[in-house]
Amino acid sequence: xxxxFFFLFVSFLCFNSLSxxxxxxxxxxxxxxxSDTALSYAIxxxxxxxxxxxxxxxxxxxxxxxxxxxxxxxxxxxxxxxxIGNNTSKNGMEFNVILxxxxxxxxxxxxxxxxxxxxxxxxxxxxxxxxAMYCANNSKTIQYCIYGGAYLPLQNSIECLGFNGxxxxxxxxxxxxSYNQETIGNNKHLQLEFNSKHxxxxxxxxxxxxxxxxxxxMQKKEMPQDKIFIAQxxxxxxxxxxxxxxxxxxxxxxxxxxxxxxxxxxxxxxSYFKSNVAKIVVSEQFKKEIKTLQANYQKETTTKENYxxxxxxxxxxxxKNEIEKLNQNIKTDKTGINERLLGFLSxxxxxxxxxxxNENNIPxxxxxxxxYQHADPANPEQALMRAKLFILKKDVTQAKACLQEAIDLGIxxxxxxxxxxxxxxxx
Length: 427
Known about the structure:
Layout: H1 12-16, E1 27-32, E2 40-44, E3 55-59, H2 66-79, E4 82-86, H3 95-112, E5 120-125, H4 127-137, E6 144-148, E7 159-165, H5 171-183, E8 189-194, H6 203-219, H7 227-246, H8 250-264, H9 271-281, H10 284-310, H11 316-330, H12 337-359, H13 362-375, H14 380-392, H15 396-408, H16 414-417, H17 420-426
Parallel strand pairs: 3-4, 3-5, 5-6, 6-7, 7-8
Antiparallel strand pairs: 1-2, 2-4
Helix pairs in contact: 2-6, 7-8, 8-9, 10-12, 11-12, 11-13, 12-13, 12-14, 13-14, 14-15
């Protein structure tokens, strides 16, 4: 789609006032903070930047700020939005440390570039979503936040967009949060669903975030309204809405209708969506979908509770059979429950293993990593953890084999090279 934004175009000379060191149209993955060189960020400034320098600050759970930038740089270029990847936040860090590092990062961004806090939106995935939401809650100026894969409750004054993967092991948790926000009448919250496992949204889905941010800024009169852009969004949303209705996916149509109303009301005639959404919510088909969703939610929640109770109490034969059953059921399961349960076992395995490593509890680690390996064999983290277990057991041969497996599955080899024990074992 060719942009018509009158506010996007700035000259190269104007851009130079943004930064003397960062070139437009090029990703920089490791820009050190002047105030603290132990901290860094990744950045992508589009060739055509919005005149008010809109920014997404991205929180990756692994502190890999360049990763989401690489996913979304083409959309950022299309809309003129600056992307900054926060390398100072990762899973396992205390929230107060994340907040302290974030504050240093933002102070430097404000002083280095022509960026105002009112034009900054925080966007995080998984543990990064919790970090972004924590920083938003503890900031006096951030008014826009996007999450996916996990959440922390946000203050109602913050405009919030959520992404929830239908195959994500945290799907039911995020679904419950969305329902809670609807129950309390929080019209500043919107959650979208997409067909994915636990991952950053792909570029097609992520387009919603860029549109949402621009439409909200226009709706709140924080930037000029672009009538052509708004009309283009309306036509795109209507196509999406009509397609869901034609497929008799009434809940999906309801979500698209809600998105359209919340982002375009008072800027465009959204009576089409309002009237059709009103019909959907009283239809028997919609009520049936919701009833089925609630039943599946209860089934999945109960199963997760039982898995937690049985994690260390059931033997390997039980878990082998249970995991095989889940994999078999995936082939015919349209609800996504079985795939999400495998993801839940993977996440539980990772979390319980971390705790058992801290306790040096080898018997528990053997049980936990058996489940983790079988539930998520393609995950390099389980292979790396098994290597660490074999090192504890002084089985160098098996440890070396697991390290090679982790590398073959895509683990960042620097994690081995930067760990003296793992490096010595592998070499």
